[in-house]
């Protein structure tokens, strides 16, 4: 329902492991001879990917179109992409706006209050689609919501009753306390909870906000992708019955040793860093300038925040997503398989925390547009 990031050239890889471990990723050796177009050569005898940068930065390194078990990657020109931004987000022409909405003064324009709608994605910021009409979002402390998107942009719905929305109230994000009951908990998340995490107590079948938990073995701990192991486990929250223990995902990394590592849990440093800038966004006035679906979307952040703050937002967000994929990865591999991560990192470093100026016109912001969240190579 909410729009996706598909407008970027979003290369969604999943670093899959094969039957007996992870692939290895390293630089092309001087003895190896590559075809001109090859940027990654897969040696199927050693299960190693050898990488070299494309000759020109206008190329992208993409998997060869083949269904074979293991494959090379080639340098190719990316196809031009358009955004599909929601009302309130930037555009050059109407092609950059979702639902072919008009682009006026560089912003996608939605349907105003009182206009017809099919879903909230076409409604102007400050409104949502109710019974096919864009109506003002529900304020904090008021009832009638059936989803978080019905509430003002800094609030979520405590949806106590599915049948009777008058029992459901909009509350400020993060306004509940640790171990407060919460009506909904999707995939362990509720924006109402102090750390946005929750869990069900299986004894009394009630969802509660959980305390902050982290990876016992440390952020990005090495793990075994092929077997059940406890490397990625969190510390327990004993408030729950039985005590709540969760774990990060174990994923193969892009390094030359072929090791796998755990994704970060909410209490791990990468999550805390992202949470800090994310909280700054949800507490800012700018969040109200976004369509209800794209309230936390990086394109809306880009539209209203300075280049410096936006770069930091995207940097911490991407770092969190890619953390375990990039552990120990060599630059020659990142240059082909995680090019966008390098661009985001350079934009962030370049706009450093040391320049506090009015800045903004460097083109490093443009890099960060291409949030390709690295990952697949599903090789079976
Ligand atoms: C993979 O790349 C290498 C080096 O360029 C080349 O020799 C080989 O033929 C390629 N294999 C396939 C299946 O395209
Ligand atoms: C390994 O690659 C070669 C050619 O590059 C191919 O002939 C062979 O079948 C491959 N082996 C496997 C196990 O896929
Ligand atoms: C939120 O919903 C839960 C479950 O219905 C309820 O127990 C709790 O009291 C609600 N919280 C508030 C602040 O209304």
Automatic annotation (TrEMBL):
| Signal peptide span | 1-21
The organism's superkingdom is given as Eukaryota
Q: Which UniProt keywords apply?
A: Signal
Q: What is this protein called?
A: Dickkopf N-terminal cysteine-rich domain-containing protein
